[in-house]
Amino acid sequence: MTTLSLTKVNKTFGATHALRDVSFDVAPGERVALLGHNGAGKSTLMKIILGLFDADADTGGVQVVGAAPGSAQARRQVAYLPENVAFHPALTAREQIRYYLRLRGEPVAQADELLERVGLGHAARRRIGTYSKGMRQRVGLAQALIGKPRLLVLDEPTSGLDPVSRREFYAMLDGLAADGASVLLSSHALTEVEARTDRIVILSGGTLVANDSLANLRRSAALPIAIQVTAHRDSIDAVAAELGGTRHNGKMVSLSCSHDDKLARLGQVAALGEVIEDVEVLPPSLEDLYSHFSQRSPS
Ligand SMILES: Nc1ncnc2c1ncn2[C@@H]1O[C@H](COP(=O)(O)OP(=O)(O)OP(=O)(O)O)[C@@H](O)[C@H]1O
């Protein structure tokens, strides 16, 4: 069974068509990045999944762990982490998580294990008012993990975190996904989701314009691949004459080719033998793909 199933979801606010016929599924254990420019419809879609907004009547369907969004069954299985979490500054993380456990009818003894799991075991008895933003975000994740949710909906979960905290945050998500939880996260930080998610969904002006793995998006976009060839210094003229391309800094030649021509182009480079010092193949980045697909959006 899919964890999340969206079929032709529509949402209008007066004259604003925030979502138009958006359809995609999320499977158990899948990590899906939801991308889109400001106002693309990401938060609206998340709020529909959480049952905070109703989709329009002409929507095909929304199933959250097999139930209607916002129903008691769906709410038990879905966790939400907003971009900016707010907790009582005078409480310790342990007190705060125990409080939420009590509200959810779960044993309060789980608090220590949850905080340990998000890397806050050492600070569990410190007041949240003394925490950094990254630590507060971890308290939010510990709260989201109460009741072992099957779907985690995370709105810009790493915004404002430093690079190390971001990496640690994604490592925690990897562990949760490996245990079978599905993750749907929105982000504007393209480079970090590039490596840490299984599938990319791009919304543009409320319309879904891409929904696939990075590898498949690269194939379907067919954007040029860059090859950077570094020659030994006294050989650069010969290398440039043989390969063409653009010369840089007296040592390097940049080539651009299609996916289908890549191996033939690399063969030409390899045939030059010892005059080549190094070769780097740079596939289109998620940023390139994002611009490509976002611009293709129907108006
Ligand atoms: N409660 C609301 N009332 C009226 N219009 C709304 C409401 N919520 C969202 N919208 C509009 O719907 C569109 C989609 O907004 P949404 O907040 O979903 O975008 P987003 O992709 O989350 O943007 P951001 O990256 O800036 O958070 C926007 O045009 C927004 O102005």
UniProtKB/TrEMBL annotation:
Keywords: ATP-binding, Nucleotide-binding, Transport. The keyword Transport applies. Residues 4-230 form the ABC transporter domain. One of its GO terms (molecular function) is ATP hydrolysis activity. The keyword Transmembrane helix does not apply. Pfam families: ABC_tran. Belongs to the ABC transporter superfamily. This is ABC transporter ATP-binding protein. It comes from Pararhodobacter oceanensis.
